[in-house]
Amino acid sequence: MITIDAMMVCLDLSDIDEKLVAFSRSICERLEVRKVYFVHNIKLYELADDFREMIGDLDLGKEVEGNIADIVAEQFGNITDHEILVSEEPNTEVILADIVKRYGIKLTLLGKKMGDKSTGALGTKLLRILPCSVLVFPETASFNIRKVLVPIDFSDTSLHAVRLSKELSDQLGLELEIMHVYRLPTQFFPLISEEEAVRKAVEVVKRKFADLQKRHREMADIPYTLVRAANRSIAERIALHLEKGHHDLLVLGLKGNNPLPSLSLGSVPTEVYNSDIDVPLWLVYSEEAIRK
Questions:
Q1: H/E segment holding residue 274
Q2: What are the beta bridge partners of residue 85?
Q3: Pick the CATH number of 144-292 from 3.20.20.70, 3.40.50.620, 3.40.50.720, 3.40.50.2000
Q4: Cα 252 from chain centroid?
Q5: Across 21-44, average pLDDT
Q6: Fewer CB within 10 Å: C terminus or N terminus of the chain?
Q7: What CA–CA distance (Å, rounded) separates 177 from 1?
Q8: Could you tell me if 21 and 72 are in contact, meaning their C-beta atoms sit under 8 angstroms apart?
Q9: CA–CA distance, 52 with 55 (Å, rounded to integer)
Q10: pLDDT score at 276
């Protein structure tokens, strides 16, 4: 059974907050979550001087906490133990990473605005710096999750994502699919035909899947799909397969244990995050991958 000792929900006082808090309730209704922290950081230095003058001696932190408390009361209720944390620090990423370590956060819930409404810069920074798994909830996503897609590259990282997804699917009765995107070694064209190259590539990948299923019997009954990248990126192929298969959740493994946090996220998760997919994206670290 998947148990989350502590979950952090990052709020930004925008319209997406209500959806994010409601989605956190949906998670708590389906999984065992022992405590939820609703957090917001006020960047006082970003406030205009005229606004500072207007609020005067008003305790902005108290006001923000009260606003969040109203949303939590309406959208979350008392389904599980929870706490509201409001800080006033210059660097949001640093204070959130500190909260993760201080309270033993295992999962962070992060909202994502679509299209031109957000650059996604803060979200990308958080994905790189937070020492925990992150569940990204787009503003257009649905709470109703029935089908899960897990792209793999046969690394330990992606296998951890499969194991978590399998456990999640068994626990909640979800439909699970594995996919692998492969590329052809085009440097050998025209020495061999494209048709022959495709046949060879599929043979190799199928052998990898057969070996994987032998070593991990729990994965033997999970259906898998092979997709050729062709003229698109791996992230683009993942997004197209998500839409085609009507999946409701995408799970990707993240690499960890890297002294340079900016190198730990990986190009595919970064591109997927920055695309306009409209399903929740669960980016998972294994416990062993996270530096303590």
A1: helix 267-274
A2: 39
A3: 3.40.50.620
A4: 7
A5: 94
A6: C
A7: 20
A8: yes
A9: 5
A10: 85
Residue identified by tokens 């309406």 is 74
* Amino acid residing at 149: L
Q: Which amino acid is at 143?
A: F
The tokens describing 198, both together, are: 């495709």
Q: What's the token pair of residue 18?
A: 């209500």
Q: Note if the bond before 259 is cis, omega within 30 degrees.
A: no
User: Whose structure tokens read 């920074």?
Assistant: 125
For residue range 243-290, what is the model confidence (pLDDT) as tens digits?
A: 999 999 999 998 754 434 443 566 888 889 988 899 999 999 876 655
Cα distance between residue 254 and residue 161, in whole Å: 8
Neighbouring-strand partners of residue 35: 81
Q: Supply 145's token pair.
A: 């999750």
Angstrom distance (rounded) from CA 160 to CA 144: 24
CATH of 1-143, one of 3.40.50.620, 3.90.1150.30, 3.40.50.2300, 3.40.50.720: 3.40.50.620
